[in-house]
Amino acid sequence: MNEESKVTAENEEIKDENTEEMNETVNEEVTQENVNESEKNEKASEDVQVEDNNEIAKRISELEAKAEEAENRYLRLYADFENYKRRVQLDKEASQKYRAQSLISNLLPAIDNFERAMQIEPNNEQTKALLEGVQMVYRAIIDALKQEGAQQIEAVGKEFDPHLHQAVMQANDSEYASNIVVEEFQKGYILKDRVIRPSMVKVNQ
Predict the structure, then answer these.
(1) How many Cβ atoms from other residues are within 10 Å of residue 158's Cβ?
(2) Which portions of the chain are predicted below pLDDT 50?
(3) Helix pair angle (101-117, 125-147), 10° resolution
(4) Predicted pLDDT at 35
(5) Distances from the Cα of 92 to the Cαs of 66, 144, 146, 149, 196, in angstroms?
(6) Is-contact 196 151, C-beta < 8 A?
(7) Comparing C-alpha atoms, which of 115, 199, 192, 112 is closest to residue 159?
(8) Terminus of the chain with fewer CB atoms < 10 Å: N or C?
(9) Beta strands 165-171 and 199-204, pairing class
(10) What is the DSSP letter of 120?
(11) pLDDT tens digit sequence for 17-74
(12) pTM for this entry
């Protein structure tokens, strides 16, 4: 091989080495760029994921709050409905228990008149017979009231009870202790545990 050919071969070899070095450099730069780009993409992906997680957590919190509010509203409505049912049931029971109250209240004036009529002293057989008839009707009415759970309130000789008695006069009688009913002007009536009309009485001081 002549000298010129050697030089050409050396130049070609140097050129190939330079080309190879340039290629390696370029490959390294491209690889680094790819790594950097990949890192950027991963970072962006992580940021997006964190943002998505925050949004999801916020949405979950909102839904939980709405669910809790809906549950509380349901519990309040349920409690109100239960209270309503209980009131209706109590009203129904009271209506059944005191169903005769209105009738008894309307009968009381007539009963009072019967009692006043029975205080008359008969002066002949005809009046006596009439009085016995009035007493029979009166007893029948009182018995009917008892069957409905109504009864007369005991007053004379009993201690004054403001729930059962209405004091319209005071007395100073040594035969009775203090706060004892000494006279009854109008009978009182009670239906089961409800006072329909208190007794009108005179109370000893």
Answers:
(1) 15
(2) 7
(3) 160
(4) 56
(5) 38, 23, 22, 17, 19
(6) no
(7) 199
(8) N
(9) parallel
(10) S
(11) 556 656 566 556 556 665 566 666 666 566 667 677 788 888 888 888 888 888 899 8
(12) 0.56
